Amino acid sequence: MSRLLHSLSPHPIDLDPSSTTHPFLTAPFFSPLLFPNNSSDARDHCANERTFLSWLRLSVYMAIVSVAITISFHLKHEPTDIEKRLALPVGLLFWVLSFACLANGFANYVKTVTKYGRRRALVQSGWKTQIVFTVVACAIVAVCVLLLSTNAKQRRK
Fold first, then answer.
1. Contact at 8 Å (CB) between 90 and 69?
2. Mean pLDDT in the chain?
3. CA–CA separation, 15 vs 80, rounded Å?
C-alpha cells in the first residue's frame, strides 16, 4: 500500500535543456518542474508566474463584470429598455473576453516555461497578447462610453 501511495505522490521533474519533451506533458503531471538556476532564472520564473496571475486576475474581473452586466445590476433605479436589450450581448462579450484573457495568460505561461526549460526564453509579449489586450481595452472603453451616454440620455428626460 505504501509503495502505491509513493508511486502516486508527486516527484520533482528535473528538466534537461536538451530534452525535446514538453515539460507539462511529463509524468507525473502534478509535480513541480525543476530548472537549473543559472544567472537569473528564478527571478524570471517568478516574473512569469506573476504575469500569469495578472492575466488570471483580469479574467476573473471580466467574468464578474460579465455577470453584473448580464443581470442588469443597478443600485438606484430599474434598468431602461435599452439597458435590458444590451445586457445579454455585452455580458456575453465580456464573458468571451474573460476566457480569451485566461487562455492567453495560460498559453503565454506554458510557452515561456517550455522555453526556460530549453534555455531559449526570450521574454516579450507577442502579437496575440497585444491583440487580446487591445480588444479587451477597446471593449471596456466602448461599454463605458455606451453606459455613460445611456445615463446622460436618461437624465435629460
1. yes
2. 77
3. 58
